[in-house]
Amino acid sequence: MDEIKIAGVLLTPLKQIHHPKGDVFHAMKKSDDGFLGFGEAYFSTINYNDIKPWKKHLKMTLNFIVPVGSIRFVIYDDRKNSTTYNSFFEVTLGVNNYQRITIPCGVWVAFSGVGEDYNLLLNLANLEHDPSEVERKAELKDIEYRW
């Protein structure tokens, strides 16, 4: 398991059940750590070598799962009262590292497509999307990180 370096971030190993006629990929149960209620679920894709820049939710908790491809997530903690203030955490998730990452509100996240084919992300969020509760950085370079 990867060493988590941001307070409140969880990595939860998930089951993959292989079957000759099609596999089953577990995502989340209401009894899981990181489940804070259900607001919405959506899928997002990211192309190989593309980076979706920094965003921070002010109220929403994210639960990202990568059932297809491979996606590298970078999280940055700028919460002044956090024990992990000014820290980064990076993890690559996908079929070969099938886990769910829970990202609490108040931290920045950006991600890149590292799978050469199709990269698919599922987000199981505790709140419905509200554009007024998210902050975005205009440029990837607005948070200094070596991609």
List the helices and strands and how they pair.
Elements: E1 10-13, E2 16-17, E3 24-25, E4 40-45, E5 51-57, E6 62-68, E7 70-77, E8 87-94, E9 99-103, E10 108-113, E11 120-125, E12 134-136
Antiparallel strand pairs: 1-9, 2-3, 4-11, 5-10, 5-12, 6-9, 6-11, 7-8, 7-10
Q: List low-pLDDT spans.
A: none
Strand content range? 35-45%
Q: Note the main sheet.
A: 5 strands, antiparallel
Succession of helices and strands: EEEEEEEEEEEE
Total domain units: 1
Helix content: under 10%
- pLDDT averaged over residues: 95
Look at the structure and name the CATH superfamily. Answer: Jelly Rolls
Secondary structure category: mainly beta
Instruction: Give the second-level CATH assignment, the architecture.
Output: Sandwich
Brief characterization of the structure:
The protein has 147 residues and is an all-beta fold.
Please explain how this structure is put together.
This protein has a single domain (10-133), classed as Sandwich (Jelly Rolls). Strand 2 and strand 3 (24-25) form a beta hairpin. Strands 1-9-6-11-4 form a five-stranded antiparallel β-sheet, with no helix packed on it. Strands 8-7-10-5-12 form a five-stranded antiparallel β-sheet, with no helix packed on it. The chain has 147 residues and is mainly β. The protein has strands at residues 10-13, 16-17, 24-25, 40-45, 51-57, 62-68, 70-77, 87-94, 99-103, 108-113, 120-125, 134-136. The chain is built from no helices and twelve strands. It starts with 9 loop residues before the first strand and ends in an 11-residue tail after the last strand.
